[in-house]
Amino acid sequence: MALVKVSVVIPTYYRPKDLADLFDSLLRQTVKPMEVIVVDDTPTNVIEKVCETYHDSFKGFNIKLVYVRNYRERSAAIARNIGASMANGEIMLFLDSDVVLLPDYIEKILEVFDEKPETLGVQGWINLGIASKGHIYTKRHIIVNIWRMIFHLSYIRHSETKKFKLFQYPSNLQKITLCESLSGSNMALKRSVFDEFKFDENLLKYSYMEDKLFTYSVYKKYPNSLYITPYAKCVHKVSEEGRITTSTFEHPHLRACRKYVLKKLFGTKGIIIFGWQTLGLLTLSISRKIWRFIRKK
Asked: How far is CA 29 from CA 50, 90, 100, in A?
């Protein structure tokens, strides 16, 4: 495999401890990146201090650590575009700050680009069995997953397929497989992709589904160019810090982003999908409240 230069781009909003864990996993990679670019949406200097602490560690491996503050509106989409514009690598690896990579993650990502020349983007596999919070597939989880599938919400697919659809994610992945979109938590893209595509900067703050909008747009133009590989493994801790939480069935900002993305991707059909998904989310929320009430009795 030819030596390929990799730029890592990490947009973050707070999460200093998580970022330090990610840095440690990058330093342990069997194939090191040429640079790590942190784009900071945090209003304080906590992230800058983490970068200062790790500067010499990265320098020791001849890795350039770049810290840049986003002075525009807070937005994961804007932060990703800023990082992409600064990157010098042939491959841009976008990582959420609450991800931890297994040591051969980058090596296995690059193998896909090397083995499949048509590849424009690759995501590693978040093995749900080793996720920090764990996933036990009880009858209730199975029912919820089926419900999410019916309402075209993101759901877990337990069987192999030739291509994973937009709202599917594999629980059991045995081989490199085509997919219609990539997860922004960990995805690598060829530099040339950014000659045609940018992250949509109308999606502000948490920028919910900006990864789906970006990568599904790539898929529509280049149908057999996106892959997921089981060999590049990582853990997504799903940190609550810097994440939108709500006691209602869906935060208004997330709902607005979801509607925008679906309409942008599918036009009028997207509005119908949005309404159908919203009904599914509402009924799931009601069923959870009923379940909690029954358990308390």
From this structure: 19, 18, 11
- pLDDT block averages, 10 residues each, the chain of length 297: 88 98 99 99 98 98 98 96 98 98 98 97 81 54 89 91 95 95 98 98 95 98 98 89 62 95 98 97 89 74
DSSP conformation class of 194:
G
d(CA 87, CA 82): 9
- Among left, alpha and beta (phi > 0; psi -120 to 50; other), residue 102 is beta
pTM of the entire predicted model: 0.91
Determine contact, residues 185/236, Cβ cutoff 8 Å: yes
Q: CA-CA distance, 229 to 112, in Å (whole number)? A: 8
Residue 51 CA to residue 49 CA, distance in Å, equals: 5
**Which residues, including other chains, have CB under 8 Å from residue 105's CB and lie 6 or more apart?**
25, 29, 124, 186, 232, 233, 234
Which tokens sit at 168? Answer: 């599917």
CB 119 within 8 A of CB 225: yes
Bridge partners for 236 per DSSP: 99
Question: CA-CA distance, 181 to 216, in Å (whole number)?
Answer: 5
DSSP per-residue codes, 46-75:
HHHHHHHHHHHHHHHTT-EEEEEE--SS-B
Q: Give the CA count within 13 Å in the CB-facing half-sphere of 199.
A: 25
The structure tokens 């089926």 sit at 146
